[in-house]
Amino acid sequence: MAYSYFGKKILILGIGLTGISCINFFLKKGIIPKVIDESKSPVFLHKIPKNIQYHLGTLNHKWILESDLIIISPGISSFKPILVHARLLGIEIISDIELFSRETICPIISITGTNGKSTVATMVKEIAKQSGYKVFLGGNIGFPVLRMLDEQADLYILELSSFQLEHTFTLKSKIAVVLNVSEDHINRYPQGFNQYKKTKLSIYKTAEICIINFKHKLKNIFDNKKSKKWITFGTKKSDYQVYYSKKNFILCHNNKKIFDVRQTLLCGHHNHENALVALAISDAMNFPRNCVINTVKKFSNLPHRFQIICRKKEIDWINDSKSTNVNSTKVALDSLQTSGTIRLLLGGDSKSANFNILKNYFKKLKIKIYCFGKDGKNLAKICKTKSIYVETLRQAMMLIAKQVVSGDTVLLSPGCSSLDQFSNFEERGDLFIKITKEIVSQYT
Fold first, then answer.
1. Which ranges carry the Mur ligase central domain (predicted)?
2. How far, rounded to the nearest angstrom, does the alpha carbon of residue 185 sit from its chain's CA centroid?
3. 7 assigned ligand-binding residue
4. Is 53 helix (H, G, I), strand (E, B) or coil?
5. Per-residue pLDDT tens digits for 63-120
6. In the prediction, which pLDDT does 357 show?
7. CA atoms within 13 A on the CB side of 405
8. What does the pLDDT look like over 39-55, one tens digit per residue?
9. CA distance 174 to 240
């Protein structure tokens, strides 16, 4: 179906990288949109062409209600009253992902989940390249998707957040996968976790091949969807499994051994499962197995994702700043193998998540918890006997520097958004790395 936007009043919400890509998309079609940003001084304001009308500081209700089509950036909540009202009036609100899906006929692999999206998407991209595909990765990582339309491609890989999926309706994925679903962004969804989960699962609606995590109880989506091809992972009864023993961590397909992930540079059981999903996707795409195995063997943890920064005086310093939800912290703790004390840096904006699920978990661990940031005081109450609160990450690390001993592991896995004190999780992780290097440089 060919979509025409001529004669429509088009409004773009948000002047971030996504918004700028949307402006350029319409200008190439000879259409001049209007633009709104709730910030009074958006970072990319200078990138807006002079012939574009824009409104800053508030959502201009008049512009919204007189629009025919609104493209909403993922950082803007679609549950704002004026946008709910606009939808009730029949005004179409879509994402840049939806615009993209209407324009391309190239095969798409779509990947979402609470944790692990970037690792799996990047791994699959590298496997596709080794298999001879001209491939581009975009969405929540890499390029804004509309920029990829300018490139000649054999395959697109999309990493998608729940925010991007909220207004994506016709995404024609060759393969779609939900890696996992756990509590996150509860402050964004009025109906709580179930609404968040439903948004994630919507990625399967128009997909050809669906890869499903049995372990996360996503089996209910099988109902009334017999026409699709389903591939499973996550349990012993799945199509794809990780077999653990004392000596081996084997990736298996239908109980046949493929290779041992201990031959790779990947750290943590969660990354073994990420490699398993990359294998399942690759098999569904008929990528050569040797390309899969060779790529995974050389693949190391992405920056800020359970990244071992330093090992000195038998102390491990691990940067897991990408941990922005409570489950990612639990996964990081599960991935540690240490007899020493775990010194956990926990804090930031909890996004209204329930951290009490860690209470009994913390009690069983040999752990000291250093809480910081906006919700640090409340987080310190979860396990009072093992927790301490300070205002900043630096203060917490200075305290750790005085207390850490040989055999300990220092883990930044905050479980929270970084936006209370940092621009993003990368800035938070970079500060951790910088301070770590300052501390260990004093060791003799």
1. 111-281
2. 12
3. no
4. coil
5. 999 999 999 999 899 899 999 999 999 999 999 999 999 999 999 999 999 999 999 9
6. 87
7. 6
8. 999 999 999 999 999 99
9. 19
Backbone angles phi, psi at 93, to 5 degrees: -120, 120
Is the pLDDT reported for residue 185 higher than 90?
no
- Residue range 277-299: mean pLDDT, rounded: 96
Tokens found for residue 88: 């009730």
Query: SS3 letters for 239-306?
Result: CEEEEECCCCEEEEECCEEEEEHHHCECCCHHHHHHHHHHHHHHHHCCCCHHHHHHHHHHCECCCCCC
Q: 338: annotated binding-site residue? A: no
- The structure tokens listed for 113 are 């989940």
| CA–CA dist 333, 14 (Å, integer) | 37
178 near 200, Cβ under 8 Å?
yes
Non-local CB neighbours of 363 within 8 Å, separated by 6+ positions:
383, 386
Residue 329's closest CA among 297, 365, 295?
A: 365
Query: What six digits make up the tokens of 355?
Result: 């951290």
Domain 10-94 in CATH 3.90.550.10:
no
- Rounded to whole angstroms, what are the CA distances from 14 to 53, 79, 100, 199, 418? 13, 15, 17, 21, 20
Classify the phi-psi angles of 74: left when phi > 0, otherwise alpha if psi is within -120 to 50, otherwise beta.
alpha
Structure tokens at 98: 């939806």
User: Among all residues, which ones are annotated catalytic?
Assistant: 117, 140, 185
How would you classify the pairing of strands 69-72 and 92-94?
parallel
> What is the dotted CATH code of the domain comprising 307-440?
3.90.190.20
Whether the domain at 99-298 and the domain at 307-440 fall into the same CATH topology: no
Query: What are the two backbone dihedrals, phi and then psi, of residue 10, each rounded to the nearest 5 degrees?
Result: -110, 130
Task: At 426, list the tokens.
Answer: 């990368």
Question: How far is the C-alpha of 176 from the C-alpha of 206, rounded, in Å?
Answer: 9
89: tokens are 């009036």
The predicted structure's pLDDT at residue 444:
61
349 DSSP assignment: B
- Was 115 annotated as part of a binding site? yes
Q: What is the mean pLDDT of residues 146-152?
A: 93
120 vs 135: CA distance, rounded Å: 15
- 423's tokens: 């621009």
Cα–Cα distance between 422 and 428 in angstroms, integer? 6
Place of tokens 């500060």: 431
For residue 443 the two structure tokens come to 């060791």
Q: Determine the 3-state secondary structure of 161 from DSSP.
A: coil
Kindly list the domain boundaries of the chain, sorted by start residue.
10-94, 99-298, 307-440
Q: Is 257 annotated as a binding residue?
A: no
**Domain topology for 99-298:** UDP-N-acetylmuramoyl-L-alanine:D-glutamate ligase (3.40.1190)
